[in-house]
Amino acid sequence: MRDPLSVLTEAFTSFLFGKVETTRLPVRTSTGQAQAVYLPTAAPGLGDSGVIIGREVYSGKGYIYDPFQLYGQQLPAPHWLVLGESGNGKSALEKTYVLRQLRFRDRQVVVLDAQGEDGVGEWNLIAQELGITPIRLDPMVANDSGIRLNPLDPSITTTGQLALLRTIIEVAMGHGLDERSGFALKVAHAYVTEHTTDRQPILTDIVERLRHPEAESAEAMNVDIDDVRAWGLDVALVLDRLVDGDLRGMFDGPTTVGIDLDAPLIVFDLSHIDRNSIAMPILMAIVGVWLEHTWIRPDRKKRIFLVEEAWHIINSPFVAQLFQRLLKFGRRLGLSFVAVVHHLSDVVDGAAAKEAAAILKMASTRTIYAQKADEARNTGRVLGLPRWAVEIIPTLTPGIAVWDVNGNVQVVKHLITEKERPLVYTDRAMTESSVTDPELEWETEQRAILIEQQMNGTSQSTVA
């Protein structure tokens, strides 16, 4: 029985100061029991309209992403950067993303496929599944039956043609054109476009005019004809590589008839080109400008331009400048640029650091797969990722990535359907034996589950 004085004191105190909070003793319990009392919370997702990617690791919710749906609400730009070491799932993500986007009728995708397997590009299986023939650029067969893209195609404006020619030369030479070489190129291009009326002008015409300039070209600037010839000699030698060198046949003729620019998926197969040679950025520059003038149209279609090995673009100042202009079409004409890069250091420490920074700034979506700790810290610093995300990047297992969508950061596990699985795996030579081993498949899956549980703060002792 309570002391009467205590009861009277409590009543008087409550009258003056209000009811006193009840003091309760602490309760000891386990996390398994407490989870029913303290319900878990998770950051809001990106909405329910768009393409399913997978599920959020921490909340288990489905993760849906679509730059066209999010643009203007949560995204200032529709462009996307994908980073990560090889073998962690970048390729599978890109392919399932494209396959799922193509289920919408107003979508169209162009892929620059720079990696190959079994003598074809890694997008070949998907192209076959959709009944599409890749545009295979191969200097070994170009002279016979290969595909040609003409930098002087009449569908490209004369200004665009001249800019493309300058870029090709600057990439090959490794420095910008001086005024004299630029003048020689300009007068040769002007003469060829003005006097070639019965067919498409081709690069051979430019090379010939650089070697043998017209007298009126020199007279217009009050210089000697031999000077104009000397100024254009280095330019002619560079372009001759596309005409009679290791890149011959792909760009020194009229554009191949029959390239279907209305197909839902257009794949440029660059797998037969040495990825480490100067040829790759030259090819990407030509394809990029050609697409800019022939593919992008104001027809309300949503277009995706996906570039494998994109460091060939971002690491070259001259090519990067062309693609910066292309990226600006994203807002006006509905273009989403997807750049796939292994290491951010390949970009930010390269020769085109300024241009790379501008392109990275345009990418409002960043997906980061597993990286080494040093690389993860550098990536986090450049991209402004939260500390917790930087710390888990080195621990991520294949198929799991950190997604940063304009500041909305989530850890997402990519899910692949059984129908997609045979189309998206590109390392068949390395994984063929493991794919047919059910026991190894089970072990790999269990290890992935264990790591996910550790990331979620739980622990299970039943997983071997």
UniProtKB/TrEMBL annotation:
Protein name, UniProt field: ATP-binding protein
Keyword match Protein transport: no
A Pfam family that the UniProt record links to this protein: AAA_10
GO molecular function: ATP binding
Lineage, opening ranks: Bacteria, Bacillati, Actinomycetota, Actinomycetes, Kitasatosporales
Source organism of the structure: Streptomyces litmocidini
Keyword ATP-binding in annotation: yes
Key words of the record: ATP-binding, Nucleotide-binding
InterPro entries linked: P-loop_NTPase (IPR027417), T4SS_component (IPR051162)
